[in-house]
Amino acid sequence: MDEDFDMPGAEEMNEDFDLPDEGPVLKVGEEKEIGHQGLKKKLLKEGEGWDTPNNGDEVEVHYTGTLLDGTQFDSSRDGGTPFKFTLGQGQVIKGWDEGIRTMKKGENALFTIPPALAYGESGSPPTIPPSATLQFDVELLSWTSVNDISKDGGVIKKILKEGEKWENPKDLDEVIVNFEAQLEDKTLVAKSQDVEFTIKDGYFCPAISKAVKTMKKGEKVLLTVKPQYGFGDKGKPASGSEGAVPPNTTLHITLELVSWRTVSEVTDDKKVIKKILKEGEGYERPNEGAVVKLKLIGKLQDGKEFLKKGHAEGEDLFEFKTDEEQVIDGLDRAVLTMKKGEVALLTIAPEYAFGSSESQQELAVVPPNSTVNYEVELASFEKDKESWDMNTEEKIEAAGKKKEEGNALFKAGKYARASKRYEKAVKYIDYDSSFSEEAKKQAKALKVACNLNDAACKLKLKDYKQAEKLCSKVLELEGRNVKALYRRAQAYIQLADLDLAELDIKKALEIDPNNRDVKLEHKTLKEKMKEYNKKEAKFYGNMFAKLTKSDSPDNNKATDKDAEPMSVDSKA
């Protein structure tokens, strides 16, 4: 394992990830150099937490500045008003920009700043002499984070109130916000409380969707929005309660993210959508084969209920086993993504619901090609036993059971579901190094059978590349397995790797000369090769014909005098 993973040392990791220099770790009374230009920091009082300000943040400090002989030349403390500036923007001497970004909130430090990071050889007459080393006693009172979230200066976000946790909403999520938009002269343009919208659909102006994806629940920000993220060179006319926005106007928008509902695509084709109405507990979710219990309401698009389970007093919860076709496919898949106690609204397209047929349900008929909605509360679930919870005997038994289930599904023409069963069977016994010799033999036989059967499924599903890989796995275990050679040849033919297909068929016939299926496939291969050769001959024939035509006397007259005609063998 050491050779496989070869973990890098700490120094290598710093180089790879370009970790920021957060300054030296100091104890109270200790002094160390920051960087390599002579800037020194002595810690006078520890700050709070771990966060430090970033370039672009608005910081607030108290300070006292002195020369090395103790002569004071400036102090915010004397006037009682803290000094505010934007960090890293050159608004203060370089030593301040570099030193203050190493401080935590409430920290007090003494910085000794060389001339190169202060006022240089000229000084700042009359208070600071030429080439003066300065000392600043600085206390970092607070800072406001400011981010250029559009990366082009178009939307600047200033955090007014920190949010909770770490999650941010995404494009499909439905958010609830409070917002207020003003022109630069403070004229109120729009103001709304508890506005709900889907991020990808947007609201008011493009900047709001862009900003809300960077926010946490409860966070409040001030956005400075340039015209390209507002209403551009056309502006916006007054409408209802909203005022007009003149062309090419910068807006100031106060935005608060109250909450959001997570919306996700359960299937890759976006035909099963899940909206979380209430978050569940912990991190565990049901697995395939789990027994789930839930409350369930099924509705048509017009709101008519066709199913209601587990809601009446004393009524049992609706129970089913996942991945067993006991419910519609969309519900089956969605439940696998839920946590205990989660309440979700599912929108399921016909392909994952009742299809093109009419379906009589408990309370109503579901018409053909209906998109349906389910409100689901996952009350509890019992997971199917995972391989790591099994001993060797149990793993082999479970693999055998999944293989039989796969066989039954294959015979029923349910190839995708059969494939999943074979894959799960192999997972149970994939890592067999701790097995006894007898158990290893059993595991090998099961791996061979399941991978071969899975390859047959993949051929039916036209997933020829995967079929080829599965057959190759079998041949690694049994190099003279005729079925594996035969099915891999079938895959190669469909992938147009005819030479490789011929090698597999010839080897299969050497091992079993009388195998009828292999002989038939050999015949198919010969026909394919004949067809391929005809196409190739026609292609080259057309190409040579065009070349010959281009070399005719009439065509040569039209060519550049310096160009030499191409000589083509007429016999070709």
Overall description:
By secondary structure, this protein is of the alpha+beta class. The protein folds into 4 domains: 30-144, Chitinase A, domain 3, CATH 3.10.50; 148-261, Chitinase A, domain 3 (Roll); 264-382, Chitinase A, domain 3 (Roll); 392-525, Tetratricopeptide repeat domain (Serine Threonine Protein Phosphatase 5, Tetratricopeptide repeat). It contains 14 helices and 22 strands. It has helices at residues 2-5, 10-17, 76-79, 94-100, 206-212, 329-335, 392-411, 415-429, 437-460, 464-477, 482-494, 498-511, 516-550, 553-557, and strands at 31-34, 39-45, 58-67, 72-75, 83-86, 108-113, 134-144, 146-148, 155-161, 174-183, 188-198, 220-225, 251-261, 263-265, 272-278, 291-299, 305-309, 318-321, 343-348, 359-360, 365-366, 372-382. Strands 1, 2, 3, 4, 5, 6 and 7 form a 7-stranded antiparallel beta sheet that branches. Strands 14, 15, 16, 17, 18, 19 and 22 form a 7-stranded antiparallel beta sheet that branches. A hairpin with a 4-residue loop joins β20 and β21 (365-366). α7 runs antiparallel to α8 (415-429) and α9 (437-460) packs parallel to α11. The longest helix has 35 residues, at 516-550. Mean pLDDT is 88; it is low at 1-21 and 556-572. Pfam families: FKBP_C (PF00254), TPR_1 (PF00515). This is peptidylprolyl isomerase.
